[in-house]
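WARN retry 2 of 3 for item q-0093 after timeout on previous attempt; input resubmitted unchanged.
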Amino acid sequence: MITALNTQFGINGQLTFVEDASGLVVAQIDNALCRASLCLQGAHLMSWQPESQTVPVVWLSRDTKPAAGKSIRGGAPVCWPWFGAHASDSAFPGHGFARTVPWRVIESGTEPDGATRLTLRLVPSDKTRMQWPHDCNLDLTVIAGETLRMELSTENTGASDFVIGEALHTYLQIGDIGAVRVTGLEGCEYWDKVGGSNLRRQDGDIVFSGETDRVYVNTAAQCVIHDDKLKRRIYIAKSGSLSTVVWTPWIEKANKMGDMGQPDGWREMVCIESVNALENVVTVAAGARHTMIVEYRAESV
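OK item q-0093 returned
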C-alpha cells in the first residue's frame, strides 16, 4: 500500500507516505513553505508549521496515542455528518464517524506558489451506512504552504435531500491559554455549553480563565488569536460555515481526558472550530454539493 501510494500520489521532495508505529498511514509534507502531516484514517491533519514560524501553528498532543478506529488528540479532526451527540441514537459516536474511519487518496499536486495539495475521500462501509444511509461523497482537500487551506466538500449523489452538521475541530498552538485573546466574534450570539446551555451575546474580546465551550451561531466572521507569549497572531478565515466553536477544557476536564499532554499541555492549545451546527446545520439537496472552506495564516508581531 505504501509503495502504491508513493508511486501514484507521492511528490518527490514534497509528499511522502509512511506507516507510523501504530500501523496507520501518514502523508508527510515537506516543501519550501511548510512542514505538515496528515493521517489517512479520518483524513486527520495532525500538524502544520510554516517556514516563517519557529513553533507549530496546529497543535498535536504529545500524549496522543494513534490507533486504528480511535480519534487523534489534536490536529484538525473532521466532525461529520453530525456535530456533537447524534440527534436520536446515543450509541452513535459523538461528532460523527468521519474522524475514525479510513479515507483514500484521490489526488495530489503542487500549487503555483509551491504549496502541496492533497485530496482524500471517505471510504464508506456497512457500519457507516448503518449510521448514515445516504448516497454521497465526502472529500477533504488540504493545501499546505505558507497558509493552510482546508476544503470539506459533501456531494449528495442520491435522489433525496439530507441534512448535515460538520466541523473542522482545529487545535491551534498558543503560548499560554491565560495570555491570549480572540477577536472577530464581538456582538455575536453563542450557546454557552458550560453555563447551562444558555444563549448569550459576546461582549468584547474572548479571554480565558476557565473551561470554555461556546457555539457562536449565524456568523461567518474571521477570527484572530492574539498571542502575546509567542508574539504572533493566527488568522482563521472561512466560508460555507455559519457557526464557530471556541473551546478549552481547562485543568479539571483535561485531567479526566488523559491524552492532553500532561501535566499542562492543555494550556498550550485552543480550539477555534469552523462549524455548521444547531440552527446552522446544512441541507444538501439531491445532486448538489456543499463545501466548507477554512484558511489559516500566522503572522509574527
